[in-house]
Specification:
This protein has 3 helices and no strands. The chain is mainly α. The protein has a domain of about 25 residues. The radius of gyration is 21 Å and the shape is flat.
Length: about 50
């Protein structure tokens, strides 16, 4: 019979999931503008190169 294995868990953990970076950035952060610009770039040629 297999031996039972118990996974350790941090009892002091206050969050189940790590916080989202989106929640940490202010609405007027320049990082939001950069993210929007990058999301709108057409990188299909680059992606096709590596397929």
């Amino acid at each position: 019979m297999a031996k039972a294995v118990f996974k350790d868990y941090p009892q002091g953990q206050v969050l189940l999931f790590p916080p989202s970076l989106d929640e940490k950035l202010p609405a007027d952060s320049p990082a939001r503008l950069v993210n929007q610009i990058i999301d709108n770039l057409d990188i299909s040629d680059i992606v096709n190169t590596y397929k």
